[in-house]
């Protein structure tokens, strides 16, 4: 195996080095295609190694990755029944609805639809994941994804927190996806699942549309978990929320107090109460024009100037876009960061956080000049930041997001201030 791979790698490296740019040659485009289409960790590692060996500078590599792969037009369309196998062997089925006239030359919005009724056994082969069927979900303007949940994989469990983004990344391997127009919609338990991702893992999504759900389930031990909900975590992402006035499970009055919390936290949201509405989506045809307008109006800012995050753990649920909380004062007890960027200066307010990472994008920062970081009014960094192809490839491989690339990272400790 080694005797066949190494000469190929060296030959490709020579071709790219001669061209001086991974973006400037057919061989370079082949390597970029391999990188974005890698479907396993070994493939990702191999494609990253080949790009590093090619010798292109960080700026050229950044441009190549931003441009993305040459997407094939010869791909499956229509209703695709697929599955993902997690590292522990759990099989997660999902359905993808690809427009029949899919055009690989343009990026498509993507919408995930999370179904209700999760407290049941896994779906049998051939059983529809969306009880009403898929006809009402098809849309010639977007790719629609319908994943599955069941009694051991509620939408708000850790395994789904891994699964749903993994499905998104796998779709991006084949189809030209608009990274900044990926939406998460859910009905009933799926609506509650939409709240979960909004509170705990929002980076991938442009907006959230929870229908007839209730965020209170995320704090109810009957849901088998109980999360601390920081409404400040919803800042920067809009929600379109619908509940029925007379819903026997989650009436609008039961959700109202959470809506009030959102208003106090200045969270952008729409709250539609359906008069006399029950636990159903009979209202959807009438609401659809407003919903579609909401989606058109809300495109993700992948690199917002202000990010904030609160979490009580650092093994997961510790990231918001270009901010990661690495160490808390005490694991299990919440800490919070508010980060504001202005030019090359970053101001941070830290509460019960010991260390964190900032990921830097070369179009958002002038990395030819010093970057200044001020934490709790103390200057902790005021010098040049080194860009790295390794850093670029590491985060690109994790995120699979052409709109959110990072060439540098700052790992910072919060200064101890006198009591």
Helix and strand arrangement:
Elements: H1 2-19, H2 26-37, H3 41-54, H4 58-67, E1 78-85, E2 91-98, E3 108-114, E4 143-147, H5 158-174, E5 177-187, H6 189-200, E6 207-211, E7 238-244, H7 252-264, E8 269-274, H8 284-297, E9 306-311, E10 319-320, E11 323-328, E12 335-342, E13 345-351, E14 353-360, E15 371-375, E16 378-383, H9 389-399, E17 408-413
Parallel strand pairs: 3-4, 3-5, 5-6, 6-7, 7-8, 13-15
Antiparallel strand pairs: 1-2, 2-4, 9-12, 10-11, 11-14, 12-13, 14-17, 15-16
Task: Give an account of the 3D structure.
α1 (2-19) crosses α3 (41-54) and α2 (26-37) packs antiparallel against α3. The chain has helices spanning 2-19, 26-37, 41-54, 58-67, 158-174, 189-200, 252-264, 284-297, 389-399, and strands spanning 78-85, 91-98, 108-114, 143-147, 177-187, 207-211, 238-244, 269-274, 306-311, 319-320, 323-328, 335-342, 345-351, 353-360, 371-375, 378-383, 408-413. A hairpin with a 2-residue loop joins β15 (371-375) and β16. With 419 residues, the chain is of the alpha/beta class. It folds into three domains: 2-67, no CATH class; 78-297, Rossmann fold, CATH 3.40.50.1820; 306-413, no CATH class. The chain contains nine helices and 17 strands. The chain has an eight-stranded mixed sheet with strand order 1-2-4-3-5-6-7-8, with helices on both faces.
* CATH superfamily placement of the largest domain: Alpha/Beta hydrolase fold, catalytic domain
Report the sheet with the most strands, covering strand number, pairing sense and barrel closure: 8 strands, mixed
Number of domains: 3
Strand content: 25-35%
What is the topology, as strand order, of the major beta sheet? 1-2-4-3-5-6-7-8
Query: What is the helix tally?
Result: 9
- The CATH topology label of the largest domain is Rossmann fold
Number of strands: 17
Radius of gyration: 22 Å
Quaternary state of this entry equals single chain
- Class derived from helix and strand content: alpha/beta
Task: Please provide the ordered H/E string of secondary-structure elements.
Answer: HHHHEEEEHEHEEHEHEEEEEEEEHE
CATH class of the largest domain equals Alpha Beta
Q: Give the proportion of residues in helices.
A: 25-40%
Which term fits the overall shape?
globular
Named at the architecture level, the CATH assignment of the largest domain is 3-Layer(aba) Sandwich
Mean of the pLDDT scores? 91
In whole angstroms, the N-to-C terminal distance is 61 Å
